Amino acid sequence: MINLRIDDTPVQARPGQTILTAACEAGIRIPTLCHVEALTPVGACRLCLVEIRNWNGRLVPACATPAQEGLDVVAHSDKLTALRRTILELLFAERNHICAFCVSNGHCELQDLATELGMDHVTFPYRFPSLPVDASHPKFGLDHNRCVLCGRCVRACSEVEGACTWGFSGRGVETRVEADLGDPWGASRTCTACGKCVQACPVGALFEKGKATAEQVKRPEILAEVTERRPRA
Amino acid sequence: MNADLETRVAEFAKAYAGQPSELIQALHRVQSELGYVPPAAQAAVARVVGVPLSQVRGVITFYHYFRATPVGRHTLRLCLGTACHVRGADQVLKAIREELGVGLGETSSDGLFTVEGVRCLGACGLAPVMMIDEEVYGKLDPKRTKRILRGYREKAE
Ligand code: SF4
Ligand code: SF4
Ligand code: FES
Ligand code: FES
Q: What phi-psi label fits residue A162: left (phi over 0), alpha (psi between -120 and 50 degrees) or beta?
């Protein structure tokens, strides 16, 4: 067993576990967005940043950092809350998160994080990009206005379903989630219409057709359920 | 036509067959042969090299080096450097878009121009600047830009 401290509480972790998992098992909540159980951690959103006191106060993503012997981790402080709030503000400012008109209103991880971290206004200028909605798939839709580029759909589709339909195209502020060679989702040669990406998406970007405002509830936990039931090689 | 292209691309990519880590090399090879990598060629590379389509798309759109559309007869490089930016490169780009119907990274439908954005052509005193092939055009405004482009079009007719 590995012994470390998180918020001054002694915590034990098994080799290979991340700081996030260790904290979770010890009942210490660390905010996350891009990470979801069963998918490879990528450390993309930085909301789970924690401070390592005995690494000169270095900030590391808890979801992608292995628990190590003797680590003195700060998971909650005014400084960390301020950082996490800034990250959220940037996410809200980047695209068009008009919660009142969103299918995920009330069931959205981004919204929940804003509440949890007390982010009640955005200090950055909104970018208001003009982005399309891909409604070409018979069962599902993709609204780029709501996407936070967490990559959960990309990983759910490749790691759990094995279809590898989604990928990121472009770079920087032009980055988009796209199917296959940039095809409309409905024209995808690889999508099996399984819906795992929709369940994985933390916001209203991927949704089931026919859902009205606030009706879209997601079940990202099915990814872990599905993979745990799989026979292991 | 497409079947033919696929066979050719498969031939170019053969050296990298079944080696996902060689994807970029394979795409380089195809682009050096065809001048660009159209979607049908991207799909063929994905199949031969053994990677998902979405991964090929990611690489093609991430690296400015790769192009998915053919190159036009003339290459127009519009400077987006600081001096040109301050002096209205966006207005010049707007004029280009109005005249040619395409923006950065695209080729006009008549195949005459491929428009590219570059960072500082080293002629800041003439900002805003563009180059068409080896020719430098400075102190541009929307009107002059359109006039220059029309000149090329008329010559081409
Ligand atoms: S529905 Fe399933 S196969 Fe289709 S893109 Fe989503 S996860 Fe991939
Ligand atoms: S569509 Fe959803 S799951 Fe996919 S990257 Fe965007 S926010 Fe994340
Ligand atoms: S949850 Fe750790 S970086 Fe996103
Ligand atoms: S910034 Fe355009 S030439 Fe230098």
A: left
Residue B51 is encoded by which pair of tokens?
């990677």
Mean predicted lDDT score pLDDT of chain A: 96
Write the CB contacts of A136 (distance below 8 Å, at least 6 apart in sequence): A184, A185, A186, A187
Whether domain B74-156 has CATH 3.40.50.720 = no
Q: Which chain A residues are Cβ-neighbours of B54 within 8 angstroms?
A: 154, 164-167, 178-181, 190
Total Cβ atoms within 10 A of residue B47: 16
Q: Cα separation of A6 and A76, whole Å?
A: 9
Instruction: Please give the DSSP secondary-structure letter assigned to residue A138.
Output: S
pLDDT digits (tens, 9 = 90+) for A12-52: 999 999 999 999 999 999 999 999 999 999 999 999 999 99
Asked if A189 lies within 8 A of B55 by C-beta distance, the reply is no
Architecture field, domain A99-228: 2-Layer Sandwich (3.30)
**pLDDT tens profile A50-108:** 999 999 999 999 999 999 999 999 999 999 999 999 999 999 999 999 999 999 999 99
| CB spacing of B54 vs A189 below 8 angstroms | no
- What does the pLDDT read at residue A152? 98
pTM: 0.85
Q: Does domain B3-62 have CATH number 1.10.10?
A: yes
For residue A61, whether the previous peptide bond is cis, meaning omega lies within 30 degrees of 0, is no
Top CATH class, A2-76: alpha beta
**ipTM entry:** 0.89
Q: In angstroms, what separates the C-alpha of B23 from chain A's closest C-alpha?
A: 15
Cβ atoms of residues A180 and A165 within 8 Å: yes
Express as a percent the part of chain B with pLDDT over 90. 88
Nearest-atom number in ligand 3 for the CA of A32 is 1
Structure tokens at A14: 């098994």
User: In sequence order, which residues have a C-beta less than 8 Å from that of residue B84 and are 6 or more positions away?
Assistant: B78, B120, B124, B127, B128, B129
Residue B83's CB is within 10 A of a number of other CB atoms, namely: 17
Please report, for residues A13, A24, A48, B12, B127, the alpha-carbon distance to residue A7 in angstroms, rounded to integers and kept in the order given. Answer: 15, 13, 14, 57, 56
Instruction: Please report where in the chains the tokens 């055009």 appear, as a residue.
Output: B137
Domain with CATH 3.30.70.20 in chain A: 99-228
> Which atom of ligand 2 approaches the CA of A154 most closely?
4
Write down how long chain B is.
157
